[in-house]
Structure formats: C-alpha cells, structure tokens
C-alpha cells in the first residue's frame, strides 16, 4: 500500500492511500467531531459534523468519506467550521424533542457531548416539537423516536453486522423515521434477532434497554468494532 | 465598588434550580457579603424592584403571568441569566408542546382523571391562563447569559455568580454547559 | 440495417407524402387543451371531403406557443391556427377547398416564432414522434451510422469536445470532458444514463423533447454509448410525464425492431440497449447520485462525491450521466460538424438553449435561442412582455436552485457565466416571469417550501435547515420577525449552502439569497411593519378559557 | 442453485387474481431486487394503493427485507399506502401555477370539501392532492381531475366542475 503525506491542521502526516481524512487525523491524534460515523460501520455522510476545509477547494468535504491525497492540506478546526458545527447541533436539538434531564442516556449521549463541545449553551433556532412515538413492544429494548437524530447507525449495524436488515429509514425529509420491518411494532418483528447491535450503535437515548432509568444507560459502542475485527480480521480485542 | 443587586425569579419550573442554589450552603453567607438579594421567591417581596444588576430566571414561559412578568424583569434588570434547563430550553415544562396545545394536558388532568366534579379550572385574575406553547425565556426577551443544567449543580452556579460579582462577562464552556 | 436501408426508408417516406400536410400538436400541453378531439375532427373532415390522397393529418410534437393551444399548421403554406376547437377544426379542411376558415389564425411571422433558433427543436412540431420512419426521413440515425462506421470512439469524443457542448441539466459541465473521463475509466461494464427527471417546477423542455422527438434522444445516447464504451443505457423519466414515457417506450421498441438499438447495430460489433426507469415523484432524484440510487431500486438519497459517477456509478461501474437536452444535441453535432455548433452562441457557451417561458408573460411556451441572447429579447420580444399592461419585475431562472434576476438586468446575455454572476443559474431552462404584483419574499418562501418538502432527509442541514429557513421566511412574511431573525436567516442560508450533502441542499438557499440581494427593501418593509416591539405581543393564544 | 435459493414464495392465500398479475410483472423483471420501484408502480396500478400485506408479498418475491420495501415505498410521493377517494383532484403547485394563483385553487377546494391537502374526504369521495409540476405551464394554473388535465382554472370553474362529479354533501354549502 503506497503511503501518502498530507497536512492536517499544520501537522505533516503520513497515511496509507485508501485511508479517509478521518482515519488519518485520528491516527495522528487529531479529533474531528462525528455523529453518524461509528467505528465498524460504513460511512454515511449525513451529519456533516466532520466537514473539513481542503486547501484549493471552496467546497467542504466530509472527513469520513474523503480519501487522503498526496500534498493535501486539511483544516479541521477553523472558525467557520466551528460555527457551522454549532449550527448543526442546534438544528438537531430543534428538530427532535431532546430533553436531557429525563433521558436514559444523560451523561452517555453523543449528541449531548457534541453540544458541550461546540459550545451550545442555548438553542438559537425555533424548537419544532414534532409529534413522535415511543415503541416499547420489544421485550428487551425500546425506541423513543423523540430522541432519534436519523444518523442511521442502527440501520447500518443491523444490516452490515447482524445481517437482518430489520431497520430502515421510511418517509423522507423532516418526516423521515427509522422503522422496523413494515413500520410494525418492534416486538412483532419477524426479522429482529434481539441481538442489540442497534442499541449499541445508537448515539443518543433513542434506542434503549427496557427498564433503564434516567442517566444510567451506557451503549457499549466499542462492541461493534470488536465484532467487525473478530469477524473480518479474526482478531478478538478483549 | 457598589454591592451587586441580585435577584432570582421562578417561572414555569419545579424550583429545583433554586434548591440547587440553596445547596451552595455556607457559600451563601459569603455571597451575602458581596451582593444584596433584592428579589427572590424565597423571600416575601411582591413587586420586582428597579435597577437590578443581575437576575437568575428559573423556569420556562408557560402561562400569561410568566409572559407579562418576564418583560417587567427584563426592563428592570441589567443582566438577565437563564437559570437551568427549563429557562434555557423549555425542558420538562415544554413536554406538552408536541401535543400541539395546552388543552390535551388540561383535559387529561381535569376532565379524564378526576373522579369528582371534573371541570377545567377557569378563574380569571387568579389562575393564569396557559399558553398554547411553552417557550424558553430567550424566545420572549433578550437573555444575556445561559446557565444550563437540570438543575445546574451548585459549583456551576457559584462559578457564574463569582463571575458576575467580579463584573466579568459570563461565558461558560465544556462541562459547564451540559444540559440535563 | 445498412445506410442504404435508411435511405430507402427516407425515400419511401417522402414519396408517400401527400401534397398537403395538416399538423396538429399532440404534446401534453395541447393534449390537455383537447387536441386529440381536434385531431379526430380533422381526420374525419379529410375523410368526408374525400381528400385522403391529397391531405395527410399528422399528430406532431410541440409547436412552442403552448398558451394558445391546440395549435394546427397547414403545410406547405405554413398557415398556423391557434386555440383550435373540435368545432372549428373542420373549417381548416374546408379552407383547402376555398371554404371559409373559422379557426383562429395565429401569426406565424410574429417575433415569438421568427426570433427563435432550431437545433434541439428542429423536428419538433414537424415530424410525427410516434413513427421512426418520420425521424429517419429527416436524416435520423444517420449520425449513429456515421459514428459506428467512420469514427473511433476517441474521434467522437473529440468532436463533442470541439463543439463546446456543455451539460444542459444545470451546471454546464463540458460534455466532451465528461465523456472522456468515463471512456478512460476502467470497468467491466459501463452505463449511459439520460436524466429525464425534469423536476424544476415551471420547466418542461425535456418533456417536450421526449414527446416531440424521442428518437433524437435515443440516437444521442447510442452515440454516447459507443464513445464511452457502454452497452446499456437507462432513461430515468419522471412519473409525471406519462405521454413522454409512452412515446419513449414506442420509440425504443421501433428502434429495436429496426436494429438501430440492440445487438450488432449497423452490422458493427456495437451493442446498445436502452431501458426506461420511471421516477416516482422525488425531486431529489434529479441529483445524479440519488438518481442512480433510484435506478438501482432504492431510496433516492444522494451519496457524497467523490467518487463521481464517471468513476463509480451504477453498480460501482463508470457511468455517464447527461440530461435529455444534452443528448438531443449530439446527433446534430455529428451530422453538421462541431464547427457549425461552436459557431452558435458565445465564447464559452456554445449552441442553443431551450427555455420554458412561463408566468406573467404574454406568450408562454417553449423558446429555443442561441446562448448569449439577451434576457430582454426572450421575455419582451419573444415573450411579448407582461400581460395586461403590467411591468416585469424579475425573471426567475434555474427553479428551486436558481435565483430571481431583477428587471434592471434584462440586458444580460443568457449564458452560464452571466447568470451565475447575477446569483442565478441556467438550470435546466425554466424561466418564470414575475410582474409588479409578485411578492418576492413569498417567492422565496415558495421555493423554500419546495426544497423542504423535497429534501430526502439524509443530511442535517438540508433536512432540518430548510425547515428552519421556511419558518423564518414565514415569520418575516407575516410581519412577525425582527432584525435578529433576518440575520439568522442569512447566516443559516450560508450554512445550509456550504454544508449540505448534495445539490438540492447546497442550492436551496439561492432563491432566498438572491431575493435578499436584489429585493432587500421588501424584506425590510416587512420587518418595519413588525415594529420594534417594545413589549412582545402574546405570541400564543391561551387555552384555559375554553370552558367546555 | 441451492434448494434455499430456488425456494419460491407461496401464492397469495386470498386467491385474488391481481396477485397473479403482479407476479407476472415481477417475473418480467426476473424478480430482480433493483426492479423494486418498477414493481411498486405495477402493484399500485393493480391495487390502487399499497397495503402492508401487498408490500410483504413483494418483499417475499424479491427476497428483500420488508423494511427496505417499506422505506422505498414511503420515500416516493407517487406511492400511497392509503386508499384514495373515488375522485382525485390534483392541483399543480409548480412555479408557473403558483404565480398564477394555484394556492387559491387549493384553498378553495380544501375549504369547500373540508379536506386537507394530501387527504381524502371523510365520505371517501374526494382525495385532494398536489403535484410538483405537471409540465403544463402554458395553461397555468392547471388541475388534474380524475386523470383529466384542465388548464386556466379559477376557484369558480374548478368548484363547479367538482360539483358535477361529486354527490351532494361532499362539498359543503357554498
């Protein structure tokens, strides 16, 4: 594999040619914020938090998709990017019904963490207060659509790791929602194996363990990467 | 230096933020050395005074009294700080918003659940009417700083008050702006 | 099939043509104005007058002046009739024998007709779109033969490059460069896709071309297939265009039967199949990666580029995507040479462009003009200006991705760069005229609502940002917004433009930004009307006194 | 081919002939998964709308996950999962129609028949729908009533046309 050198935030970095900017940056200890990206699953490119500036181009590019190239000059933390990231997080809060104080994921939520990281101390946009459902029909898990940010991590985990493809996205635009099978109660799903990978993948408290109470729930997200390494590389990182 | 004139206000919230404020315990005595508390729900004063230096507002705007009162508070205060998640985001107080109006909540509470004499409370001048939608404070008046948390932990409140007393701009970062 | 066979078909077609032809428009615009009944009456009248040997009634494609449909033209004298009814139609036949014609005359010498050019629409309104013989008689498929027998793929690409043709779908990417990229990228299969998902509201150029001259598009696609090394083509057509789909299906069937599509075309080793994929009502599928996702049977959501379709497109194979009008230019360029084509238009924008002129303008319909034609000539001379003594306020081009060009810039030449300089885009060719009664903030909100409804929902800025922008615009329009809302609107517009995943979101703020730029006074007036609001009004109605 | 791959899903138990026709349509596409949208078009043409049972039938025959079929069916505006009214009135909301007053047409029908855009009247007589752009801008504002395109409409002409088609009561008092 040929090696490429590029500059990220002024730091000269070498990376292998097929790596993404995100991989290369992380390898060099540079953190780029992400929400829809999770180790072990394919990239989605939807949350736009990992957008970076690339020298010579006016278009921002998602670090999770964009491959490194020789001589590339990447900026991951400019004032413009910081402001845009803050607006993205604000858009997400305005779009759903996120109430951290009563959420099972309070303290373990990637959206909540992003809000702190981008410096969001209040919402500058209008809350839209959509009417959304909670499905508690599954014996082990539940989904609260009020907390869903449509990152599709559950969809990808179910399809790519478990292979069941119980989840998918239905509807479109602001009417999108994740569904199980034909939008039937999760508990009735004939395809669901109750493996819990969707739960592990979920960045917020949208998919939760039945019986979890406020702020007590951890997702064990690293399990997904553990599974991928075990399955594909036959390496068990315990 | 003139002593800081400080106020606290309680709108559509559970008073938890004020409880957290009281959890500052003995530091409150230190605070009393530095500032005058000129208005607060925990003391008996009916009218919000003029020329308040800083006010911590707990709670969201949920009824017409909140709506009118917050505008008085704004006019008479130099710095208005949204205090806690209800004031900052609407939080639990705004839970009814996805239902589209206040009526479903009232009907559930006063018509469906009671066994005796179900009726909607209508007492003009005594019971303020609910707004159709609960909104955070900054949706109604200009807010100068935000102190999130449900409730904001005492050390966060202390940090904020120390900053105010020192006359520095209040801008919190990182874990100090954690919602919830 | 050989060249001589093409000549035979053409000769037979010409020999069988009676001295008089009555052409009746059968494109969707006139069909909805009852042209099928007119056609039937015309045929009946020819029968009863016993003129079958002398007069042919032909169902042709669009004659451009859609607002006056149904249109009927007699050839060779060229007399044109408008708003023909089933009642007035027979009088046209009677007129051939000296009777009185009661059908309303349309001035074929009016600027609307005489100031137009004809490349893409050269056969439109002249030939029968449902008969391949009619297309062959006007040298149809001759270019494909020439390409397969006389040119190498590289030469074809060079010809297209030399012509200066640029993509007619919106962005104006050089067609030759795109073809060359697909040709050089390795892949065990390659695809050619025709984007006929003409989704811009107020634009129907592609529908008209497909309904009026479908073989032209098939021929262009086949030539492209040869040039880039593809043997499979797809036409992705909007489901809203049933007539276009029907005619395409017929055209493909006829071309297959004649050996002009399929295997060993013109006894060469070149195989090319074309299949139709019917869209199902999703504007975002006009975006190329979303379109491909839809062709493959999925949700029409876009994916980040790179990789570009030319590298990894349908089923991960190199894929050439062009718009209907782009393909419709190809055969003409081959037939008449790249220099001829490059002689039309401006330095950087070659050839002609078809526009749909609609809105507050006297003549609405299809307009084809050389690129670089001043906007004023299109809307005032050809279009006849605003109706009822109104004045033109702005011209909107480029649909939901475009902008509003104010009347003071009507002398701007219409080409890719000039429109971009004005904050609009060429887009696919929608051109909507607005007069003094149009509220520009309302226009901005209209387009934002469109983008909000059509957002696929995959990326946050487009899915949630358009909702917020729509709310802000609604509030401004209702005179309930303050200066801080205006600032937020502009900041959010920039953010959605810079961070959205695909073209839909990236361009969704354009109509808003362009109306803010040119018509800020209208926004300011609404902010003024809202007043400074010393005490905010009760924004929300209280519910509790609903005592039931 | 393994026995598993060759396994053919059973015919629909209802015995409804339309399922047979749908199978023929799927066969024409060799049961290819990428023909899902074509198959959904065919199914909606046959059945008028896409019931869950029908979506499941399609999922089984194309060997696709049900959620995928549901996701695609709900992505595209052409597909409807609810039965439509006996009559449909589609108001074009393209830009040319917008500039010429399509909003007023929509509002008039919506008010007169007490039905929201995109919904069906309670008596199941009329579905009021909107189209993005019919491409009939030359005759704006345009409406499609039961499949017939009508141009140059205003509230009066449209309502009187509707009155002629609908039973008394679907349209409220004038």
Give a brief rundown of this model.
Chain A is α+β, with helices and mostly antiparallel strands and 238 residues long. Chain A has six helices and ten strands, in the order E-E-H-E-E-E-H-H-E-E-H-E-E-H-E-H. The two termini of chain A are 28 Å apart.
Give descriptors for this structure.
heterotetramer, A: 238 residues, alpha+beta, Ubiquitin-like (UB roll), Alpha-Beta Plaits, 5-stranded mixed sheet, 3-stranded antiparallel sheet, 6 helices, 10 strands, 16% strand, globular, B: 180 residues, alpha/beta, Rossmann fold, 5-stranded parallel sheet, two-stranded antiparallel ribbon, 7 strands, 31% helix
Describe this structure as you would to a colleague.
The complex is a heterotetramer of chains A (238), B (180), C (548) and D (174). Chain A is α+β, with helices and mostly antiparallel strands and 238 residues long. Chain A has six helices and ten strands. Chain A has two domains: 3-77, Ubiquitin-like (UB roll) (Roll); 99-233, Alpha-Beta Plaits (2-Layer Sandwich). In chain A, 25% of the residues lie in helices and 16% in strands. In chain A, the strands form three sheets. Chain A has a five-stranded mixed sheet with strand order 2-1-5-3-4, with helices on one face. In chain A, a hairpin with a 6-residue loop joins strand 3 and strand 4 (61-62). The mean pLDDT of chain A is 95. With 180 residues, chain B is of the alpha/beta class. Chain B has a single domain (4-97, 131-177), classed as NADH:ubiquinone oxidoreductase-like, 20kDa subunit (Rossmann fold). Chain B is built from six helices and seven strands; from the N terminus they run E-H-H-E-E-E-H-E-H-H-E-E-H. The longest helix of chain B has 13 residues, at 64-76. The model of chain C is unreliable at 543-548 (pLDDT under 50). Chain C is globular and about 80 Å long. Chain D is α+β, with helices and mostly antiparallel strands. Chain D has two domains: 12-75; 87-165, Glutaredoxin (3-Layer(aba) Sandwich), CATH 3.40.30. Helices cover 44% and strands 10% of the residues of chain D. A four-stranded mixed sheet of chain D has the order 2-1-3-4, covered by helices on one side. The chains are: A alpha+beta (238), B alpha/beta (180), C alpha/beta (548), D alpha+beta (174). Chains in contact: A-B, A-C, A-D, B-C, C-D. At the A-B interface, helix 3 of A face helix 4 of B.
Record the SSE blueprint:
The complex is a heterotetramer of chains A (238), B (180), C (548) and D (174).
Chain A: E1 3-8, E2 11-16, H1 21-27, E3 51-54, E4 61-62, E5 73-75, H2 79-95, H3 110-117, E6 134-135, E7 141-144, H4 153-162, E8 167-170, E9 177-180, H5 197-201, E10 207-209, H6 222-233
Chain B: E1 4-10, H1 16-22, H2 27-34, E2 35-39, E3 52-58, E4 61-63, H3 64-76, E5 77-83, H4 85-89, H5 103-112, E6 130-135, E7 145-147, H6 154-165
Parallel strand pairs in B: 1-2, 1-3, 3-5, 5-7
Antiparallel strand pairs in B: 4-6
Chain C: H1 3-15, E1 20-25, H2 28-32, H3 35-48, E2 55-60, E3 72-75, E4 80-82, H4 89-96, E5 104-106, H5 111-114, H6 132-137, H7 142-150, H8 153-163, H9 175-184, E6 191-196, H10 205-212, H11 214-228, E7 232-237, H12 242-257, E8 273-278, H13 288-295, E9 319-323, H14 324-336, H15 338-342, E10 352-359, E11 365-370, H16 375-382, E12 392-397, E13 403-406, H17 416-421, E14 430-435, H18 440-454, H19 460-477, H20 483-499, H21 503-507, H22 510-530
